Amino acid sequence: SMFSLRLPPLLHSLLLLLVPAPASSLALVRPPKRVAVVGGGFAGLTAARNLASHAGVEVLLCDQRSYFEYTPGILRAWVEPDTHTRLVKPISKLLPRTAQFQRVLPGHTTRILESDEGEGCPTPDSSDAAALASCPLMLSIRKDAEAPLLEYPCDFVILATGGELGPVSDDRQTADGSIKARRQRLNEQVASVMQNSTSALIVGGGLTGVELAAECAEHFPRGAVTFAVGPTLKTRAADPSCAADTGEGILPGFADARTAVGGGAPHKVRVIPYVKRWLEDAGVRVLESWAVPPPPGA
Q1: Of 67, 85, 68, which Cα lies nearest the Cα of 76?
Q2: pLDDT, tens digit, 9 for 90 and up, residues 177-234
Q3: Is the pTM of this model over 0.90?
């Protein structure tokens, strides 16, 4: 793994869309030679690293930031800012030497142009313009009417632009995409919010809510953190993929037991009571009643 943290990973919605070349090309028949990846988060970085590990495949990764940030750990950084040094690394240091990285400043537009005549890119060691014209796709990045920042002929484009996480952890719209600028902004945010607060209210008992309540319990005095989760419904789903039935309560959509491996043999642990007990022992008030009852059938 790239990072080692004591925090449990959170669930993030990541978009990974593979845009194929036109059906008339041979790119679907033979292995790709050139692949462009747009987005350097979890999905994009994983795709770029895996593809670049294959001989004969050239990979270009583009992102608005020059670094990768382990976003699930940001909540910890809000109560312990020094943690951030373990959450970020330059993207260039996380890619194999065979892969390329291009930072794209905010305000640029990405276009994917198709060619009906493209039969597949040549070998990666070829830089001949005429040969590259045989690539079925062209990744074009430019700003308004300016000359293109980048034009990259390729067999495939992977769109891994992810979701918005701002303003808590998203600095993609800032001109300075360096780690130093990101850390300075994070410290300013933490100082303006946490240092001027004496209590916290967390609404929602999902993974992010549970972790944030636990982090706030370490920062604020006992009794200063309220965790409003609502009552646990009998109809709550046991499958996290069942988004239609949140079930309310703590960790909605998750089964109440999992296999835990500790110092002895694997055993069953009731997760939800454990979470509630841990938070209450830490001085968090867990509110399981409705502040405003929902409409019937909601």
Answers
A1: 85
A2: 788 888 888 888 888 888 889 999 998 888 889 999 999 999 999 999 999 988 876 6
A3: no
Burial letters 244-259, b for 16+ CB under 10 A, else e: eebbbbbbbbbebeee
Range of the domain at 44: 17-159
User: Could you tell me how many residues make up the chain?
Assistant: 298
Strand partners, 200: 225
Contact, 25 vs 153, CB < 8 A? Answer: no
Q: How far apart are the first and last CA of the chain?
A: 41
Within-domain flag for 114: yes
Per-residue tokens: 115: 């060619």
Q: Is 226 within 8 Å of 285 (Cβ atoms)?
A: yes
User: What's the CA gap between 48 and 38, in Å, rounded?
Assistant: 10
Domain end, chosen from 110, 129, 159, is at: 159
